[in-house]
Amino acid sequence: MMQWNLQLFAEKTEQPTARRRNEAKRKGQVATSHDLTAAVGFLALVASLWIFGGHLLATLWQAMVLLLGQGTLQAAQGGIDSGDIKAAFGHVLYALLPIVLTGLLFGLFTAFAQVGPMFVPSSLIPDFTRIDFLKGVMKFFSTRSFVEMLKSILKLVVIVIAVYFAIRASASQVFMLVGADPMQLLALFINSAMVIFLFVGAAFIVLAFADFLFQRFQFTKNLKMTKQDVKDESKQVEGNPQMKRKIRERGRAIARRRMLQKIPTADVILTNPTHYAVALRYDAKTMHAPQVVAKGIDQLALKIREIGARHSVPIVENRPLARGLYQLTELDDFVPQELFGAVAEVLAYVYRLRQRVL
Prior knowledge:
Mean pLDDT: 76
Low-confidence stretches: 1-9
Strand content: 5-15%
Structural class: mainly alpha
Distance between the termini: 79 Å
Strand order of the largest sheet: 3-2-1-4
Number of strands: 4
Order of helices and strands: HHHHHHHHHEEEHEHH
Helix content: 55-70%
């Protein structure tokens, strides 16, 4: 119980691991800023208005002429053709389409860039445990709600300041349009609105980027782990260290048994004489070079010599060659080319000994 209490109040000082981040993402928990998505979408909308606004304005003007001009005449003659009305609205919608799609696509791209590809089927299942009146009331008095309220106030203040400077930048043009025709007034209104939108969009994008950085900081802070959490996760991912050690030891023991079983097939055992032992086998019909079938140092070298002696495998003392073969080769490797000459001399010597015995 005491250990559990210590873990409960342990300080989360460790950065979240990749596994913890992936688990959070699978649950739909990611660092994202809705303000950044909205800000980029808004700026894209303003930019598309700047590009396609002339076409949209001309289309609106034609629709107004059609409905207020020809439509009035047709009404006096007995009725307005519904086809003209549909055509006018169709042209307006067609002119609005690239503007709306631009803002929508940029907003979706920004949302995707923040979190990457993510599909959380569990989020589609309704969670009725969230419907808790007491928890809902407590959220109003939480630190997060207070921070969100400060962010909203800051956004409102910055946007008001941006609107003020935008109106101030356009105010000098107002006095130049005294007595101007309606088209000039409309153009001034549109230009002033675009300036206001640009100022507000620029301020909004700065605030949204700051919010994005804050959301990432807060998300990382919430995912932080205690030292014990990191150790527990490491055990889950890599397995129990003691169990892994036992598996490695068992694997080494099996490999050692297989190696020792190959010693009777060796043609020669090279020694240091006591610290190193390397057993070589060579079949001129099937091998392009001699092969290392066993090697070891100290106690294992002694065991190799014992088995070799028991099966009448020639043992040759050659300190530099034994040490070189041990360091340059692994089990079942063929003798490297730089040692061919020295090994060939040893094998020739062994073959001569066998012929003498025979």
